[in-house]
Design brief:
22 strands; 25% helix; seven-stranded mixed beta sheet; six-stranded antiparallel beta sheet
């Protein structure tokens, strides 16, 4: 593309994302799958203003505890010494350069978590919404620890940080009508508080602003999974959506890792009945049931009957669609490879690549074809020129 065309595309992308994406704070709903009725809050680092119905009620110092209870359509707030009253709107805003807080849900009871930045409380359909108003890279570090685990090479953490940042920015409007951007579960990205791993935090900081775009300079769908079993899957074979950068690749890096292989035994009659319930016409010839995948396939077939492998995986709660079928005595043996949908980046493969001194750029280009890693800050220069 010529310079002017590239400049125009950058400007379009900049408009779609945001003018101030790098100072952006994300509103993340925490405990999104739980109906929280009460919790305890205390600053862990820094001080916090308790702001209720637009008024600052008190400033909380480190480890000063308050208890917040949903009471019908309002919040009742108490400290160990006094009751502050009932309020419709509650915000806990950090005052210092670095702030984080501890939260312990008491109804229902959940273990303590620590989050960076601020906490906002809303009510929706008589349910309490806890929203972490968090700086982008603090959020990314927390997601990387949850999604990728705390034990890996920093180059892998950089890779995962770029992927998680890309995914977050691509999906910012997912819950916008509900008053926040993203939830903290697998529907968006798993997020359970701040990262306790220095390498992860450094990886998020060192890659700050980096995202992945396709050949049209749009943010990609940065899909990832645990282990592909030796071959990733093209997006159209799983989601019926053809993405030019999500194409099947052979992956030798993950084949000896923890989630590379699995096995499941099913009674023969159970397997037969399952297939019949899905329209298969079967007889007693057990050889018909044998199925091999020297490379990934999309359907399990017997004569003219077939069923999508992704449906079998979902129905039977299998780790992957990459499995062979054999019959032994009165059982069907599924011997499988991989764990997850197998689209995009294979996490255990990427971890191995990082160990072998591949850079985050090498890893991303291996799994996401015809993509580019761009620093979104540079787009501001195009806007001002």
């Amino acid at each position: 593309l010529k310079y002017k065309q590239m400049k125009l595309l950058f400007l379009i992308l900049l408009f779609v994302i945001s003018n101030n994406i790098f100072s952006q704070r994300l509103k993340i709903r925490i405990y999104s799958e739980n109906n929280i009725k009460s919790f305890v809050f205390a600053p862990s680092e820094g001080t916090y203003n308790l702001q209720c119905d637009t008024n600052i009620i008190v400033t909380l110092n480190k480890d000063e505890i308050i208890n917040i209870v949903q009471n019908n359509d309002s919040f009742e707030i108490k400290s160990l010494k006094q009751s502050f009253g009932k309020f419709k709107s509650v915000q806990l805003i950090g005052k210092d350069n670095f702030n984080n807080f501890k939260i312990k849900c008491t109804n229902p009871n959940y273990s303590l978590r620590i989050y960076n930045d601020d906490l906002l409380l809303n009510l929706s359909n008589n349910s309490l919404l806890l929203i972490n108003d968090v700086e982008l890279d603090n959020y990314i570090a927390g997601v990387v620890e949850c999604e990728g685990g705390p034990k890996a090479n920093i180059e892998y953490f950089k890779t995962q940080a770029i992927i998680c940042r890309t995914y977050a920015l691509e999906n910012l409007s997912r819950h916008i009508t509900e008053g926040y951007y993203l939830c903290d579960n697998v529907h968006c990205q798993v997020y359970r508080g701040n990262s306790k791993n220095k390498d992860i935090y450094n990886a998020a900081t060192l890659t700050s602003g980096l995202v992945i775009v396709d050949s049209t300079l749009r943010l990609i769908n940065a899909a990832f999974h645990s282990n592909c079993g030796g071959q990733t899957v093209s997006s159209e074979d799983v989601w019926l959506t053809n993405k030019s950068y999500l194409k099947s690749v052979k992956d030798s890096f993950c084949i000896n890792k923890r989630n590379a292989k699995w096995e499941k035994t099913i009674p023969f009659e159970t397997w037969k009945q399952y297939l019949q319930s899905n329209g298969f016409h079967l007889n007693s010839d057990t050889n018909l049931y044998v199925f091999n995948q020297p490379f990934r396939k999309t359907y399990y077939k017997i004569n003219n009957d077939s069923i999508p492998l992704r449906k079998i995986r979902l129905d039977l709660n299998l780790k992957s669609t990459y499995f062979n079928v054999t019959v032994l005595n009165n059982n069907v043996i599924l011997k499988g490879r991989g764990y997850g949908h197998a689209v995009g980046l294979c996490q255990e493969g990427a971890m191995e690549m990082a160990k072998l001194n591949y850079s985050y750029k090498d890893i991303i280009k291996f799994y996401y074809k015809n993509t580019f890693i761009v620093n979104m800050r540079s787009l501001e220069q195009f806007q001002t020129n």
